[in-house]
Amino acid sequence: MVDPSDRRQGCTCLLDDVRCSLRAWRDPGALPAPFGSPATGCLIKEKTMKLLHKHQLAVLFLGCMAVSVAAQAEELKVMTSGGFTAAYKLLGPQYATSSGDTLDTILGPSMGKAPEAIPNRLARGEHADVVIMVGYALDDLIKQGKVDPASRVELADSRIGMVVKEGAAKPAIGTDSELKDTLLKAKSVAYSDSASGVYIEKELFKKLGIEKELAPKGKMIERIPVASVVAKGDYEVGFQQVAELLPVPGVTFVAKIPEDVQSVTRYAAGIPVNAEHPKQAKALLDYLASPKAQATVQSTGLDSVPR
């Protein structure tokens, strides 16, 4: 990248050259001999005309370059679901600054009945250049012919964690038996309507052998972060992907659930087949998956994808 001070210095030198040549053109005698003789006046005029022509071409070229860069900058419409949102909110502005593109972001779950869910938005005909969501939900959109299969990019892995209301005691959930005991003692349990909540309701409770006990006090929370209802005191404990729990105030993060009963959710992204700006969309996806983005990804509670 060219230093702006270099541009200013270059422009000053060009102007000095032009001024000097114009003075010589008007009064060749003002120059010291042998350049100040009338015989050399026509040569100086010819040199000055060439110099002016060269600078005019340079200015025209720079102007065309500026117009070209402005013309290439686009507004990308990005649909992203909860688990990768915290990382995207940090990385998106960095990409926009470096590329010149602007990002119009819409939030929604990867699945479910809510009208805000990404599959439901696309089914209604809403436009998007990029969709970021749970990997298997993205695969469904690819099978339906709504997302280009060649555009699929792996972004991050997400694990499930638990929160309690800020100020409440942190229960032990480091082992299967501790997690089971905590769930049985809890008066109410909240989990999301996205991938992690589906796993908790359909598989985790069954693995722990407490499916019947949890049925009356477990609740799938739609559209809003699980941690927000725990922060209000509506539910005693809440489960969701760690990256979705950490940004919410008013709760205390307890821990991830044990690895042997953990469900790892892969987040991926793709480009819809009717994207208006597929080239810029690919550049955004490459940036989100790049090595230099991984420290930011991990800071939000996600795990980098092994590559």
From TrEMBL:
<dbReference type="GO" id="GO:0015689">
    <property type="term" value="P:molybdate ion transport"/>
</dbReference>
<dbReference type="GO" id="GO:0030973">
    <property type="term" value="F:molybdate ion binding"/>
</dbReference>
<dbReference type="Pfam" id="PF13531">
    <property type="entry name" value="SBP_bac_11"/>
</dbReference>
<dbReference type="InterPro" id="IPR050682">
    <property type="entry name" value="ModA/WtpA"/>
</dbReference>
<protein>
    <submittedName>
        <fullName>ABC transporter periplasmic substrate-binding protein</fullName>
    </submittedName>
</protein>
